[in-house]
Amino acid sequence: MSQQAQTIPTNDGVVELLSEPRFELMPFDSMGEQLGHLPDGAEVAITTSPTLGIDATVEWTEEAIERGYEVVPHIAARYVRDSDHLAEIAERLIDAGVTDVFIPGGDREEPAGEFTSAYDLLVALEELEYEFEEVGITGYPESHAFLSDETLAESMERKAPYATYIVTQLCYDPDTILEWIDEIRQRGVELPVEVGIPGVMKYQRLLKISRKVGVGDSIRFLQKTSGIVGFIKEFVGSRGTYTPEDLIEGLAPYATDPEYDIRGLHVYAFNQASDLEGWRRTTLSSAR
Hints:
single chain, alpha/beta, 12 helices
């Protein structure tokens, strides 16, 4: 971690990070109910579902904006057929009032059309007549299940000129996140970072999701905190539910440091918004 970090008291950092996080939801049937658990006007990211496709993302974006939320839709590259399809999506989003979009590659095995990576779509988006004020790209503090660190570094270098911020993949270890930010700063990447953290949910489900998205080091971090016995005690003591206090407290002292430039938290809620919001409010109240 940076030796010149400008730290603040932990409680101040917790308040800074948890006051207005971005909540990521999936566009399933429960989406309407999930929105109802969030604060009025909250910032909501809506993913692209492998089963429902990008149309569901756009439709729920329009619906959520109508309800007064600030929405950041995912435009996953491998779900967009071609430039015409991208233009149609962008037009609908602009008409709905979207100013911020997130561009991942997408986990679809076979692309729907000509876009095979986030970079391909970012280049095409730049050429459209429709412009967004903010464009986010993905960062991987714990590497990628199928791509080397070198490939990821080259990919970020190519994508960064088209973006205004980075969102990190799910990670449980604050030191890993801070060290990764140090690394990209040393490579000349100066984009602000939204730190992706897990929300509140049962350990068994969270570990299953973590394995699926390839964050094995984070799973080991959960288990090594005080050894496997400590992990089991934590599991039992929490009644089998994970909450991200330790992660947020580890990040909190660096929340306003200009070198790290942490733009905020991106909370992977996994459509467990009620438990997440209850925990967030309680934690904020304790920190204040």
